[in-house]
Amino acid sequence: MKHSFIALIEDKCTSCMLCVRECPAWCINLDSHTVEVTEEGARRPKKVNVLDSFDIDYSLCMYCGVCIDVCPFDALAWDEHRALTSTNREDMILSIADLRPSGSS
Length: 105
Ligand code: SF4
Ligand code: SF4
Hints:
This protein has helices at 18-22, 66-70, and strands spanning 6-8, 28-37, 46-57, 76-78, 93-94. The chain is mainly β. Bound molecules: iron/sulfur cluster (2 copies).
């Protein structure tokens, strides 16, 4: 498999921050907030993280795969159908919409 791109499956991300903490290049940035949700039949509300932003700076990324390996929810995955090239550093910082897997909208 080619290790050319890391995709974020947004719905699976719980904003647990593990990938952010373990990335050796410190190239993942994440922001989230917490909301209280009461599920049907539950005795009390529970707190749930809501993902606000998730960026990978590909100008720093080493493609080591640590973020993919440590994610407990399989929210990150190699996407062999995409590759990133640019001469502009700003273009190498991708956010949630840019990080969606190939074939998803
Ligand atoms: S592949 Fe490695 S360097 Fe790149 S974002 Fe993931 S943990 Fe960081
Ligand atoms: S480790 Fe996975 S679930 Fe946790 S913040 Fe990173 S992508 Fe989201």
